[in-house]
What does this fold into?
Amino acid sequence: MAKEIKELTCINCPLGCALEVTLEDGEVTAVSGNTCPRGEAYGKKEVTNPTRIVTSTVRVTGGTRPVVSGKTKEDIPKSAIFDITDALADAQVKAPVNIGDVLVENIAGTGVDFVATAHVSAA
Amino acid sequence: MSETSQKEMTGEKMSVTSVSSANPTSAKAISESDIKALPSHDLIVVGGGPAGLAAAVAAFDAGITDVLILERDNELGGILNQCIHNGFGLHTFKEELTGPEYAERFEKLAEERDIPYQLNTMTLDIVPVDIAGTHAGCIVSAVSKTHGYQQFFAKAVILAMGCRERPRGALNIAGTRPAGVFSAGTAQRFVNLEGEMPGKKVFVLGSGDIGLIMARRMVLEGAEVLGVAEIMPFSGGLKRNIVQCLNDYDIPLFLSHTVVDIRGKERVEGITIAEVDDHMKPIPGTEKSFDVDTLLLSCGLLPENELSSKAGVQLSPATKGAVVDNTLQTSIPGVFACGNVLHVHDLVDYVSQEAKLAGECAAEYLEKGAGAAGASDTEGEARIVTVKPGNGVSYTVPSILHLNALAPTTIIRFRVRAVFKRAAIKVTLNGEELMSKKRPVMAPGEMEQVILAKEKIFSALENTNPQGSESVLEISIEQS
Ligand code: SF4
It folds into this structure.
């Protein structure tokens, strides 16, 4: 069946090995180009289930600052990044905000909360 | 160290009786009793960013509780407050934090210790003073809205002012100068702290980390980023940023390219890039145009050393930061430097480590009395080793080792001049090899380090230079 080779760069250390991941029917059958096992694990995950932490800001009303920074509390699927930024564009919270406060619950249906990474005091 | 070289390093000092009138803030003569009348602290830390906080905490933990931090901004944390992306603290906390979270960890440590700090306080001057012919400390003057003009006497000072972006005036781009040209750091502040978007269609010049991070940031905020141009044949940023900020969003990176023209009258309407040859000259016929309303410049960072140079601290032309020894002491006794004001770092973890060392060494200096490092030891003269960047190395920090102040291990950090593949870092002392470490890849964008054991340095000195005359430790890159 369909055999596919994906090229990517391992980011786990400055070496930045150029990886070739072979996929057969959506299953990883080989990873090459890696210098250490971390590269293999990264390559497999990157082609089957790539995830990221998304960091951005949310509007704040009544605070000493107009925005507060935040992040997805856990990794989310890479494909959901823009659903998250869309959800954030409409979000708004009231000051005060503390580090760790949930800014948007279950953001874009990912099951992951978007939490504050900074403080904003009430004005 | 010999007397003469100590003098050369120290530069001009303010003595109690004759005060240089070239320095307006210290134009009035200061007497010993004036100095003693000033509010005094064992240690003043200039800058409350990651370096200043870690240094103050380390000094406190080493027994110096009379510390004051002076911070120019309206909050502690420095540049980290606007670095809302994650990836900080992998080495220090074994987890990925965002900039503000990383800063908060250190703010907490300072708060737990009740270390006093003043916000919105601009340090104006640091003036070394002698009492009865011996260096006593520094007079630090500062100004703030709440406290007005203040003068302190500090027995020791840690410089932790950080860095700023290279000014855009340094870039010779043809064309008009319409609105819409921002430094990447300014744009970062707009977007992340003030919630304002500088533009909708963006091009980035320079592939330093802030430029890469801002390319992604603008995309996440709904802008279109058409590309990043880098004049060098390699990126100045970290690999993970190339992958996660550019590749993830299909933003093209044009290596060996620069912006040759900016169009637009009031607002940027477009830019043109061209490929450059080996001498960085644009090659005719390689031009590409982009219709954008915003150009972000990410052309590197410079340590912010106006205060240090006014104080008479000797600066290194290579790092633009202070020349320091293994205790991170500058050419002025009791004045230490750490973090981005010393040399620009790419990892905040290294800043924290370096700052901790500066704090501990400042504490030791204060406990042992003036001139802990480089002071004459019982053998007579204090011995020094000069650290020299050899082949392929652009600078080292520290650049001087004071042997009588050598810790069990010494970390020497440096940057390579170009990308090296399958090369080795070689360290020699007076020509004798101390160590050789193979490295598969090294790039100017990623700081390198070697860790040297005290015994190794001493045994190599025994072999090569038992007389104790000039010794040179050299770090070089050897292609295999
Ligand atoms: S494969 Fe291993 S050696 Fe290569 S970049 Fe990844 S972590 Fe580094």
Notes: Chain A is about 20% helix and 35% strand.
